[in-house]
UniProtKB/TrEMBL annotation:
Full protein name: Carbon monoxide dehydrogenase
One Pfam family per UniProt: COXG
Cross-referenced InterPro entries: CO_DH_gsu, START-like_dom_sf
Organism listed in the record: Phyllobacterium endophyticum
Listed CDD domains: CoxG
Source superkingdom: Bacteria
């Protein structure tokens, strides 16, 4: 499953870049995020609770930042295990472009799920994933732009 989109943020590219690399800001913006800890400059550990249809799962896993090109772009990828619910893995290519006083954050996300959660059907998984992504970017925009 792939999702693409962009978010206009009323902040400089450097400010947006710093926020994208700040575990506290990310933890506050990720829907259902229970913990997010920095292990190294390019690795994080996360625990996220997700409700998808009738299935509630708690995923724990690692997140890695690669293809770092500060303050323009990076790739964020990870894999989480949700016990009997299954697993989720995926990544996102994130690009930041300055346009006047704003920054355009463009993203291309790919995700895959397996196990019990995968039995819910691709439409429900896609709509829930899109809802989570939209909510994250709205939260992130509000946190960074102060709106």
């Amino acid at each position: 499953m792939d999702l693409t989109g962009e978010e206009r943020i009323a902040a400089s590219r450097d400010t947006v870049w710093r926020a994208l690399n700040d575990p506290e800001i990310l933890r506050a913006c990720i829907p259902g995020c229970e913990s997010l800890e920095k292990i190294s400059d390019t690795e994080l550990e996360a625990t996220v609770g997700v409700k998808m249809g009738p299935v509630k799962a708690r995923f724990t896993g690692k997140v890695e930042l690669t293809n770092l090109n500060p303050p323009s772009s990076y790739t964020i990828s990870g894999e989480g295990k949700g016990g009997v619910a299954g697993f989720a893995k995926g990544g996102a290519d994130v690009t930041l472009t300055e346009e006047g006083a704003e920054t355009v954050l463009a993203y291309k996300v790919n995700a895959d799920v397996g196990g019990k959660i995968a039995q819910l059907g691709s439409r429900l998984i896609a709509s829930t994933s899109k809802k989570i992504a939209t909510q994250f970017f709205e939260n992130f925009n509000a946190a960074v732009s102060g709106t």
